[in-house]
Amino acid sequence: MREINVSKIKDAVAELCLKANFELRRDVLKSLKTAVAKEKNPRAKNILKAIIDNARLARTKRIAICQDTGMVIVHLEIGQNVALRGGALKGAVNAGVAEAYRKGYLRKSIVSGALFRENTKTNTPAVIYVDIVDGNNVKISVSPKGFGSENKSAIKMFKPTDSADEIKEFVIDVVKKAGPDACPPMVLGIGMGGTFERCAYLAKKALLRPVGKRSRQRHIARLETELERAINSLGIGPMGLGGKTTVLGVNVLEEPTHIAGLPVAVNVSCHATRSAEKTL
Amino acid sequence: MKPVKIKTPLTKQAVAFLRAGDEVLLSGTIFTARDIAHKRLHDMIAKGHPIPLKLTDAVIYYAGPAPARPGRAIGSCGPTTSSRMDSFTPELLRLGLGGMIGKGGRSPEVRAAIKKYRRIYFIAIGGIGALLAERVISAKPVLFSDLGPEAIYKMEVVDFPIIVGIDSKGNDIYDQARRKKK
Fold first, then answer.
1. Would the pLDDT of B66 be above 90?
2. Taking a contact as any Cβ pair under 8 Å apart, which residues of chain B between 41 and 80 contact chain A?
3. Separation CA B13–CA B16 (nearest Å)
4. pLDDT for B182
5. CA separation for the pair B70, B151 (Å, rounded)
6. Which of B174, B162, B180, B179 is nearest to B15 (CA)?
7. Inter-chain contact A65–B129, Cβ cutoff 8 Å?
8. Can you tell me the distance from the alpha carbon of B100 to that of B37, in angstroms, rounded to the nearest whole number?
9. Long-range residue pairs from B39-46, CB within 8 A, at least 24 positions apart, any chain
10. For the residues B34-59, what does the mean pLDDT come to?
11. Residue-wise burial string across A119-157, b where 16 or more C-beta atoms lie within 10 A, e elsewhere
């Protein structure tokens, strides 16, 4: 049995919150650079260049990439041979978030309830997912999610006999409705299967996979490619002002589901798709 | 095309020559306001209370900036989704608001009001808040400070880069983008 003090988790969460907000993911940056090279529309090209300049400035000057430093989603994969000591796990995670948002001069965007909306002034609570896995490590992924794009996400319960084409149509429609509001070029996380809530979680989790890295399942990889092509031919482009870069990537995660159902969730993420991870 | 430099206050005359799609560098004073600030202003107007903000020819920036590090004017400072403010905008335009800066499209009602009052809507690039913060030379909360990032900040900006989204004749950049595609 390996013992880990939760203070180590607090410190790691704080470090990852700062890293995610100041340093754009390498895969996202790479996909932006590829897009600049491909883009013919001069305005689209300029916007993509500004986005890349912004990422450089954010990293060197330690300014948040986007003012919407998001609601923090923390995924914890805890090895079942790990014993956590020194206090409550969730308390430690939230303490880490609060510390980072204070010290990093990040925007505190969280309110106490959906209807009673008082700013908690700490950017907590975070949304925390805990997964118990094999082994004796703790893997922590932190993703701050902005709501310009989160607001455009959608879920649909399809019939089991509905076709892949109908699912594609739904996804494309989500992108069309998001239009310029979700700060395209976007990254789409798509969850398929599970239950109503599991499917939305899968969509979120799909965003953690590097952009440009295809699913290992061939039929899913094919779906990702087809969706990317179809969406990038819509002409929405960076900031919705035209161009061929509407998505930087489409990541699909598929899981088992029920004979009666086919849940599909689309989590829309902006060009500032952020996350950072660390294993203790 | 070279960006046009303009200064606040945004009078009707100052924006009359601008057309949807024009690139603009704006200098002067702008006020941040987003969802809750708009709701509060609306409630004051509905109750007949005086608004503690001079709206005439003023510019509202739909933004909730990140706090400033010591030695800086402001933290990351990009636009938020404008359409969430759509239901409040025609009223503010009626009261003399000069223009707005945000991101994304607007409702037909907002577009009609912009045309009617001969005002303007600008878009800033979303998600480049670090870059935009470089063009802000001072910022201080002047109203609803209790709202934290949603307070109304008075900001001085220099050469703040924006694009005309809807011009004073009601032409909309997103219509143009859609037409171009077809």
1. yes
2. 63-69, 72, 75-78, 80
3. 5
4. 55
5. 19
6. B162
7. yes
8. 14
9. B39/B88, B40/B144, B41/B88, B41/B92, B42/B88, B42/B91, B45/B91, B45/B95
10. 95
11. bbeebbbbebeeeeeeeebbbbbbbbbbbbbbebbbbbe
Kindly provide the b/e burial profile for residues A237-265, where b requires at least 16 CB atoms within 10 angstroms of the residue's own CB: bbbbbbbbbbbbbbbbbbeebeeeebbbb
Tell me the two tokens of residue A47.
């916007």
For B10, counting Cβ atoms within 10 Å of its Cβ (0-12 exposed, 13-18 middle, 19+ buried), the class is buried
Closest Cα in chain B to A120: B148
Q: How many CB atoms lie within 10 A of CB A103?
A: 11
Report the complex ipTM.
0.94
What is the amino acid identity at position A219?
H
Average the pLDDT over A136-146 and give the result. 97
Longest Cα pair distance anywhere in chain A, in angstroms? 58
Nearest residue to B164 (alpha-carbon basis) of B23, B5, B42? B23
Please tell me the predicted confidence (pLDDT) of residue B178: 72
CA distance B81 to chain A (A): 6
Pairing of strands B120-123, B99-102: parallel
Q: Is the pLDDT of residue A54 over 90?
A: yes
- What pTM, to 2 d.p., does this model score? 0.95
Query: So what's the pLDDT on residue B181?
Result: 63
Instruction: Tell me if residue B38 is catalytic.
Output: yes
**What span, in angstroms and rounded, lies between the C-alpha atoms of B122 and B98?**
11
Residue B115, φ and ψ in degrees, nearest 5: -65, -45
Residue A89 pLDDT class (50, 70, 90 cuts): very high
Distance from CA of A18 to the nearest CA of B (A): 13
pLDDT tens, A259-273? 999 999 999 999 999
Is B180 at the interface with chain A, CB within 8 A? yes
Give A-chain residues touching B63 at CB under 8 angstroms. 67
Question: Among the residues of B33-95, which ranges form H helices?
Answer: 35-46, 89-94
Q: Residue A12, Cβ neighbours under 10 Å: how many?
A: 23
Whole-number Å distance between alpha carbons of A59 and A66: 12
H or E element that contains A232: helix A218-232
